[in-house]
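Pasting two entries for a bug report.
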Amino acid sequence: MKILAGPASIELGKKIANELNLSLINLENKLFTDGETYLQIDGEVENEEVMIVQNTFPNQEKRLIEIMLIASTLKEFEASKVYLFAPYLCYARADRRRIAKEIISHKVTLELLYKSGVDSVLTFNVHNREAFTSLVPELEKYDISILPEIRDYLKDIVDENFVIVGPDRGITNELQYFSDELTIPFNSLDKFRDPETHEITMTDTGLDIEDKNVILLDDVITSGGTAIDACKLILSRKPKSLFFLVIHAIAKPDVFVKIKEIGVDKVISTNTITRSDIEQIEISSAASKFIKDKFL
């Protein structure tokens, strides 16, 4: 296997190649004045298995197009297999139709990746594993869990005074995992999103967190509305401290400024989305281990 780091994930691709002692295929890329991207694969790929390492955020459509251009060219020059490792897979939350004729963007995205030449897609903690694995069955898909790395980070912090909370019941499995692994209780809020307006209402579920250290866990943060409402609700119950922990941190920097301003003590994410304004948990070792165990 060889690694090809896409324009969005050059450093991550290098880390994975180094950790696995794999060759790194050079990719020439530049941006034309009209905004289009020039790409050239500089390396031998015939009869080789190639792992494209390319995130799909920011600039989701551009990153997807780059993946498809690369995958198609790899197959044209007779790569035997083309894998895609996208730490964050865009459009995964649009996994079902809520109103008539709504486009299921997750399905279309997976179809386009497959038709462009991608044989397998690897990602971390996709929004809905069942939808991800069942849609476009001809495309091989792997949903890798980053939870063990988060657990290792938390185990040196938590004690019997900690509680882990989710913004809704959709993250119950993750809450149960950390509850079991760290021996702390868990709870969740109730969230409802209007399918047409996308407005969110949130209610308490009887949280008993006064003078407790609380970890609010979420899978992804975008506009920050849900997270901020959840933080405000939790803070109104007078916890001793509040940490906000999110797997995919795709929100703009001002969102995290607001979260800190309302009284959150610490904001943490994994670096599925690399950023410098909050503390991050490294993903490269977990990705390398999965690739080694599954493909090497």
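Entry 2 (this is the one that rendered wrong in the viewer):
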Amino acid sequence: MRIEQVSLGERSYPVVVGRGARAEIDALLPREARRVAVVTDAGVPRTLLPELGDRSVTVHVIEPGESAKTLSAIESLCGQFSSAGLTRIDTVVGVGGGLVTDVAGFAASVYHRGIAVAHVATTLLAMVDAAIGGKTGVNLPDGKNLIGAYWQPCAVACDLDALDSLPARETRCGNGEMAKYHFIAREDLSALALDERIARCVRIKADIVAADEREGGSRALLNYGHTFGHALEAESGWVLAHGEAVALGLLFAAHLAHRTGRIGAERVEDHYGVVHGLYDLRPPLPTGLAIDALIASMARDKKALGSLTFVLDSDRGLEVVRGVSETDVHAAWADFTARNA
């Protein structure tokens, strides 16, 4: 087992990475918790649910897919927690991918004004990103994750056993998120074994979260590729999975950084080398997309601060850039679609 720590003072917590990591969760839950609500979805094998000792355990299954990320789903879960008798000292455990950790974490953050939550990440995307850092949220018709809360878990287990049965598309989604860490840390992670690479991504994210828990500065760098990626998801009617959209978002961000004079053409090629080369991520760009609709979606993104805001590359590293012009976005779109359509 590899154990990485997210250092947030009295709210610090461990992230356990390894085969069978789910077995560590019971010992990491609050001692006083006698009832545990396990939140999962129908696609998660029941063999991945953790053993939780002599606690009273109820299992709550949500629907898979973005349609489950709604306020009505949160209301339903909280009603189920109440029916199960959960009190303020009890605990929620999310077992699944990023959708489950987002929904379970948000429900825990509002039930009784906040009860403890832990996560067992069963997808690569959740292991390297979604389960760590305390961001929770659900969607509105206007955009992704527009309602949510920061609510740190008390522990996270990244159980590599789950990857053995992970569908190929879910693996690609995780690779989309993993690819961004090459650019955040400016490291070639490809030489690392998978468990080491996952642990390294966890460490990178843990350090950023510890320095900027609520995204006042450096944490925004974790959104690299996400502004455009989220718009692609929403405007395509969710036909793209999140990690696929992020992979395309990384490439678009490279073209935009080139158009704004921040990087040269060779750095754009570096992005294609990581996304297409190292990770073989080539999701098809959905047809029928209009750049003006994408711009409108990006303007509503929760990271937009009064203007089009992107995380973009430069010779100094990634930076948050506000006030990006629509002219440059249009030009980058032309470059991007010429290469990827």
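Dev reply: Rendering is fixed now. As a check, the viewer should reflect this: The CA atoms of residues 181 and 301 lie 22 Å apart.
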